Amino acid sequence: MRLFGTAGIRGTLWEKVTPELAMDVGKAMGTYIEGESIVVARDGRTSSVMLKNALVAGLLSTGKEVLDADLIPTPALAWATREYGDGGVMITASHNPPTDNGIKVFNGDGTEFYVEQEEELEELVFSGNFRKAKWDEIKTVKSLDVIDDYIGAVLDFVNHETGLKVLYDGANGAGSVLAPYLLREMGAKVISVNAHVDGHFPGRKPEPRYENIAYLGKLVRELGVDIAIAQDGDADRIAVFDERGNYLNEDTVIALFAKLYTEEHGGGTVVVSIDTGSRIDYVVEKAGGRVVRIPLGQPHDGIKKYRAIFAAEPWKLVHPKFGPWIDSFVTMGLLLRLIDEEGKSLSEIVKENIPEFHLTKKNVPCPDEFKGAVMERAYRALEEKLGSETREVLTISGFRFNLKDGSWVLVRPSGTEPKIRVVVEAPSEKRRDELFELAYGTVKKAVEEVMKKG
């Protein structure tokens, strides 16, 4: 697809994401969605108001009513779409740099558009066959106050009061307008950092990967909190530190919830992305369930296809009983409930329930136009080098070599940025380091050779 990646439309302002594109997507959505009302919202990026207004103009031109929720996190937009609209659109580039922006589109039940719907919408955008409302069919823009009602819905679902002490890092993103208030409504004692909205992201990079939020570990120890929670620019992602200041690997967080839901259901299917690790399989299979891996950016597709009881990819968890969208607010509420109900610290809960594996991730810069050639070259090289050790190869969202000793190597092109992502996991640190040196070096060499060749 020319517009949609693994998480909606996303790219650099003016180069890919423009007001003209936003208006055309608005026209396409207004033509595509059969109902009357579309919920629209934005994150705090400097370009988001501009793009939202262009999108609203496109929607209005097709005769749709626009319900403007303005500055809210993406999970709240998904919830509001289910509650009030026939479709939804979020202006956000999520965890991308401040130079970028993007557009996510939602069905009336709160699900992100499925792959086939994205293809149909994209075809409509490029065809220009938009509905044009008559002058007396053009409707209005109505303000929609979402935050209080959404907080109430999350509180009702989590159904728990706590006295835990929480450190919250909002990344100067849209979550800052909601998370501290939700946590305090639960009874938590909240200390906030980077919790004012600023589209320049002055506090830290918006992606909540460890290297961007490592300072939280020291703050946890100095402040004596029970847990630290960090979000990204639109607050669908969540990262966690335990009470000792240790960063919880993304797979560990997923495994905690996968275990909880599988035990609650007495089995069932858990859907996770291709870049997730073996600890998830261990806890799910032990609890009588099964794990299915799917491409990045398609947890909602996986829920629908496999009737999954839980779905996730790194930092992004879907709780189907609450709603079929990624929701970090439900995740943080349930984490606090889990700590209280277990009567143990988070580090103790993890140690007793989740086995330890060793994982490393790193990106290799790669221009979008070279990704295909790089992936092909890297695949051939790794296939030759790992041949006798390979148990199976998965070819979704790139390629993943599952090895006979339980290790695995994943290489995939980013769907949102000019990067190739390399992920390696192994039972021991030594084995992980050996495999990662091999995989990362192979991809880096492939990029250099393809770019040199032009």
TrEMBL record:
GO terms for molecular function: magnesium ion binding; phosphoglucosamine mutase activity; phosphomannomutase activity. InterPro entries: A-D-PHexomutase_a/b/a-I, A-D-PHexomutase_a/b/a-I/II/III, A-D-PHexomutase_a/b/a-II, A-D-PHexomutase_a/b/a-III, A-D-PHexomutase_C, A-D-PHexomutase_C_sf, A-D-PHexomutase_CS, Alpha-D-phosphohexomutase_SF. Keywords: Isomerase, Magnesium, Metal-binding, Phosphoprotein. The keyword Manganese does not apply. Pfam families: PGM_PMM_I, PGM_PMM_II, PGM_PMM_III, PGM_PMM_IV. Residues 363-436 form the Alpha-D-phosphohexomutase C-terminal domain. Its cofactor is Mg(2+). SUPFAM superfamilies: Phosphoglucomutase, C-terminal domain (SSF55957), Phosphoglucomutase, first 3 domains (SSF53738). It comes from the Archaea. Residues 2-130, 149-245, 250-356 form the Alpha-D-phosphohexomutase alpha/beta/alpha domain. GO terms for biological process: carbohydrate metabolic process. Belongs to the phosphohexose mutase family. This is Phosphoglucosamine mutase.
